[in-house]
Amino acid sequence: MEKLELIRKGKVRDIYRYSKGKLILLATDRISAFDFVLPTEIPDKGKILTKMSVLWFKFFPEVPNHLIEWRYERVEGLPENFKDRFMLVKETRPIPVEFIVRGYLAGSGWKEYKKTGKLFGQDVGEGLRESEKLPHPIFTPTTKAEEGHDMPITLEQYRSIVGPHADYLMETSISIYKKAHDYALERGIIIADTKFEFGLLDGKPILIDELLTPDSSRFWPAEEYEPGRSQRSFDKQYVRDYLLSTDWDRKSTPPPLPPEVVRKTQEKYREALRRLFGEEG
Fold it and tell me: Right CATH number for 93-224 from 3.90.1150.10, 3.30.470.20, 3.40.50.1820, 3.10.490.10?
C-alpha cells in the first residue's frame, strides 16, 4: 500500500489517490459560506454527510455509482482520523456539468423567475410565488467552475457538452430527484432542489461525488412549508444568518463562529440524517 497522495483540496472535502483507479473522498468538518471557507469547523459534519451519501447510494441500486467501500476496517492503510468520514470510490472522468433538478421555486431559480417569468429559459407557468412547488421537476444544468460561480447553460449547450449520454443523464437526474423527494416528504423533509454529478468509467456514465446531502441540496422542514416566502432549511442557515448580522464585508477573511451558531448548525445536519434514515450522526 503506497502512501496516500492528496490530489485535490476542496472547500470542504479532500481527494486522495488510493491506488490505481481508486480514490478516497474525505469529508472534513470545514464549512463554507459566500464562497469562503470559514475559520470555524462544525464538529462531525463530515461524518454526517458521508453517512447520508452512503445511505442514499444504497437507496438507488438501479443507478450505477462510484462507491466501493466506506467501512474503515475494510480498507487498508487509512489514518484513524479518516474513520466514518471517507468513501473509497472508483476514479472516473468527471463530466464538467452540474446536473441540477429543481422541484420548487427558490434561490437563484426564484430570482430568475422574478426577472424573466421563466426558469432559465424554460416555461413553468405564470404567477408562481417564492418557494412554490413547480408543476413538475425542472432540469437546469450549469457549468462546473473550478473557481467562481457555476453559470446556467441552455439545454442545447448542455447536450453539446455531454454528448450522447445527455438525454439519459437528464432523465436519470429527474428520476432520482422524484424518488428521493417522495421518500423524504414521507419523513418530514422537502427536497426543494439538488445537484448531481456524473463521471465516465470505461465510456459509461456513473453517479459520483456526494448524493442528496444538505450541502448539495435544499432541505426544508415539511411541517413549516408555506409558499410565498423563503423557508427555513437544514443546512448552513444559522451560519449565513450570523455572518449577515455582522459587519463582515464578504471580501476578507470571515469572522469565527460563536459556539451557539456551531451547535445549532450541527443539530440541523443531525436532524436531517435522523429524519431521513433514523440514524444518528
Answer: 3.30.470.20
In what helix (H) or strand (E) does residue 128 lie, and over which residues does it extend?
none
Q: How far apart are CA 214 and CA 114, in angstroms?
A: 25
pLDDT tens digits for the chain (281 residues)?
457 999 999 999 999 999 999 999 999 999 999 989 999 999 999 999 999 999 999 999 999 999 999 999 999 999 999 999 999 999 999 999 999 999 999 999 999 999 999 999 999 999 999 999 999 999 999 998 766 678 999 999 999 999 999 999 999 999 999 999 999 999 999 999 999 999 999 999 999 999 999 999 999 999 999 999 999 999 888 899 999 999 999 999 999 999 999 999 999 999 999 999 998 76
Our measurement of the distance from residue 270's CA atom to the centroid of its chain's CA atoms, rounded to an integer in Å, reads 16
5 Cβ contact partners less than 8 Å away, ≥ 6 residues apart: 16, 17
Cell numbers at 103, concatenated:
422541484
CB 193 within 8 A of CB 103: yes
Is there a contact between 208 and 198 (Cβ–Cβ < 8 Å)? yes
Domain ranges for the chain, please list them.
93-224
What's the one-letter identity of residue 29?
Answer: D
Give the side-chain half-sphere CA count within 13 A for 191.
30
Strand, coil or helix: what is 228? coil
Three cell numbers, residue 79: 489514518
